[in-house]
Write a structure and sequence with these properties.
Elements: H1 2-20, E1 27-31, H2 38-54, E2 58-62, H3 69-76, E3 84-89, H4 90-94, H5 96-99, E4 111-127, H6 135-144, E5 150-153, H7 159-171, E6 176-179, H8 183-192, E7 197-201, H9 202-210, E8 214-219, E9 245-253, H10 258-272, H11 275-283, E10 287-288, H12 293-315
Parallel strand pairs: 1-2, 1-3, 5-6, 5-7
Antiparallel strand pairs: 3-9, 4-7, 4-8, 4-9, 4-10
Helix pairs in contact: 2-10, 7-12
Length: 316
Amino acid sequence: MKRYFVLTALMCAMAPAMAAEYPAKPIRLISGYATGGSVDLAARVFAKHLGEEMNQTVVVENRSGASGLIAASGTAKSAPDGYTLYFAVGATFTVMPTINRDAEVKSLEELAPIGGIVDYTNILLVNDTVPVSNLEELITYSKTNPEAVTYGSSGIGSSSHLSGEYFRQLTGAPMTHVPYRGAAPAMMDVIGGQISMFFDVTATAQAHVKGGKVKPLAVTSKHRNAMFPDVPSVAELGYPDYEVTSWFGLFAPKAIPASVSETLSKALIAVRNNADFQKQMKLSGYEMFTGGAEDVTARIEKEKNLWESVLSAAQR
């Protein structure tokens, strides 16, 4: 009996030390998009800095498909031990439940947010032959020529689609949606003049603007973007309710221990406060999303309600 109590006491004494060992092995960071894309590149920068903060290797694993749902499902099914995390794109949580009824959507309910990472915004680009030089001229031109204006998107439910549809609804400007399978072919057709405009992410838009084939008219965030300081926002041009931004966040399986979640949260905050990380993100057009788990949850609910309304109106 004495030996039993001694062993029990030793195990209790060891428990805090065992918990403190996290992370004791490399961590997988699952990304739902292909290698080489903007999401993947951001995930790899984040993984490097997270690994440095946690003194452990963080390996990015790409599981592309279904707008991030395949990666989300895979993460949700993994052991809730903090060694498999999800680098999430906001639209997976805020848009996909509205337009996708596949089984993978249910997996989103099995994930818990650790916190936000960065915000990003879109910018409205028009082909240089479209006879407009600002947003009001575009709206007037569209209303005068209701069959003339087309806007491309990287697919139904994508940020570029939602930016265009919300813009059409708020301004009353007639324009036809042309969905593509990805942002690159849509952007190429704007440059080539096959479609009138495209809401591109600021991170990739800069090169196209410098090429001289497209004109930037407005950004979709409430305020101006650091990459395009001379380009006004849609909101400041007379449409104060208009705002389309997205974000990246860190998620884990829901049953993750509180102590592990707290360790990850502290590491995430440290990454966001890292000057080098901030500089790298700013150069790509991103801004810090400083919210914690509760802020991410609130944002998901707010944006989900907005996009349900916008997409419902689009179907009528």
